[in-house]
């Protein structure tokens, strides 16, 4: 196997992918154009010279490689021989991109080695399914398209369009996909929505007057993402702890752009409300219409509406919108301080507005008022009232148990059918909870606007609401936990809305939560449990020769794995984390290898194809701390989960009892929990691009784990 490929310093980054097509560049300076594009932000460059001879293409590839010096992933289109010749010459070329007629992905992988990058073009459903079924480590990514008709691919099949691209990417399984064919500036949002990991462009850069500026614009468009516009319709709190002031802080902290239409002005501080002034309703209508005529509104949080006229104005405005945004209604009737904020007529007028909302977020007193009942004295009673309210109006209700007694503070998202999702946090002993309801509801609206595939599609996404409620719950818990660090007023002080920014955390995202990652790999873990090797090992019927094959490859793996664990320690800037990864590296050699030797593992054998590919993936992840620890985690987490199942099958006289006992050790479970916590912290601090690479590395490691078990 030829394996002298330059190792990339991180997994391939597909965000801004330049196909440097020699026919498009023509007489232009190829090296300069590519150099300028990379300086502007191109992350991957594929050199395509279909009309060039091998010698001329090799000259261009080596010249570009010398100029780039590893600043971007550099690939050769189709011509495996040219890639191999460039590598023999010492050029910093990372791999190849091939089509369906270029010899087959597995055969090409054997030629280029485990460390080289291999991309594959695929558009037809059968080709996508075949690519998804390949063993891990064969193909690194897919180029999927054409999205639109393109002059650089006149023989391409019927364009997919964005819906077709989304369907194709779904067929590709875990493989990252770059959208190609007729795409360019202005397409990043649609490509991301379809699930693409990047845009591959030709003319947008190759034919640009300023390739650096063109690449920069494409990269910035991709990285910018989409910040939702979230409108708070609520009253004002001059102390800054509640009302629109709290809403705007919460919206910004959870990743949105905040806007506000003021329904009432209050005179209040942390000790209570002393006065309320309600501006003319016509002026509220003017505020709302001015916004909807000009600004895309992705979500609306509704708070204090002082009287029936105000409520009717807001309901009329929402009902008249051409595109209905997500609506969260916090029926501000009774403040945390106990003050009544809504008169009786307004309370009765709420019914029509509730029907226009997606989620209602009442406190216990408000929940009781809305169902004409007594204030719930137990969590079970609160959930039943929430279910009643949800059924009455066809909405979701976020029931909040913060005012109940107990060591925990529960929340639950409730539908007419019952609890959709529930969450709880340790109760915090603090008086500084002013504005909690306002902050939670605006955070919920904002996170949903970011998490839902289309927050103005009309049909609510219950799964996205459940995740948004959970993330908002966790965020508000942190804001309350940090509240005592502020010094505002002498009564019920405000939350610390800025705590997460000071801690270096990015706005809450489902993709940064590790139990969402685990959900992604459940089919892989189920497959490991169902594979013959693991089943036979647990039952004690595994052939001894197969077990010897496994432990021989495990020895090969562990030596390299320990070095990568040590590398994670080197890359960390936290002393405690450094110590953990170093201790894990020592355990991988000392503890595990002692068991291997007792089982007869002698001299090291050559790495199998599966072992080599797994280690190459980990090695490729080792240039970036966050990506490396994400790639290492499945060897903790999957090993522990599978191991607990195997350990439960251990018994006296089991032929592999000594091995199974190691799976269920409390020490390894504790180490696994530490590893999960460290990766969780890294994920919450990662920017979106790094987070995408982390998840990609985690899922691919999980696929390698299954292949590693199954090889025996």
UniProtKB/TrEMBL annotation:
Q: What is this protein called?
A: Thiamine-phosphate synthase
Q: Which SUPFAM superfamilies match?
A: Heme oxygenase-like (SSF48613), Ribokinase-like (SSF53613), Thiamin phosphate synthase (SSF51391)
User: Catalytic activity annotated for this protein?
Assistant: 2-(2-carboxy-4-methylthiazol-5-yl)ethyl phosphate + 4-amino-2-methyl-5-(diphosphooxymethyl)pyrimidine + 2 H(+) = thiamine phosphate + CO2 + diphosphate; 2-[(2R,5Z)-2-carboxy-4-methylthiazol-5(2H)-ylidene]ethyl phosphate + 4-amino-2-methyl-5-(diphosphooxymethyl)pyrimidine + 2 H(+) = thiamine phosphate + CO2 + diphosphate; 4-amino-5-hydroxymethyl-2-methylpyrimidine + ATP = 4-amino-2-methyl-5-(phosphooxymethyl)pyrimidine + ADP + H(+); 4-methyl-5-(2-phosphooxyethyl)-thiazole + 4-amino-2-methyl-5-(diphosphooxymethyl)pyrimidine + H(+) = thiamine phosphate + diphosphate
Organism (species)? Microbacterium nanhaiense
Q: In the Enzyme Commission scheme, what number(s) does this protein have?
A: 2.5.1.3
The cofactors required by this protein are:
Mg(2+)
Instruction: Provide the organism lineage as a comma list.
Output: Bacteria, Bacillati, Actinomycetota, Actinomycetes, Micrococcales
Q: Give the family from UniProt.
A: Belongs to the thiamine-phosphate synthase family.
Tell me the gene name.
Answer: theD
Does the keyword Magnesium belong to this entry?
Answer: yes
**What domain of life is recorded for the organism?**
Bacteria
